[in-house]
Write a structure and sequence with these properties.
Keywords: Membrane, Transmembrane, Transmembrane helix. The chain is mainly alpha-helical and 42 residues long. Helix content is 95%, strand content 0%. It contains 1 helix and no strands. The chain is rod-shaped.
């Protein structure tokens, strides 16, 4: 039953990586949108 623990750990690492990547993309999108809004307003 050791492989079950290994698979679950790998799945958790993949999920954590996806969440980090997703939040990073969201932050990048927010920053670019903020810059665009600043350009249009000024």
């Amino acid at each position: 039953m050791l492989w079950v623990q290994i698979v679950s750990v790998i799945a958790l690492l993949i999920a954590a990586g996806l969440i980090i990547m997703g939040s990073g993309l969201f932050v990048a999108l927010y920053k670019t949108l903020h810059k665009m809004l600043k350009k249009t307003s000024s």
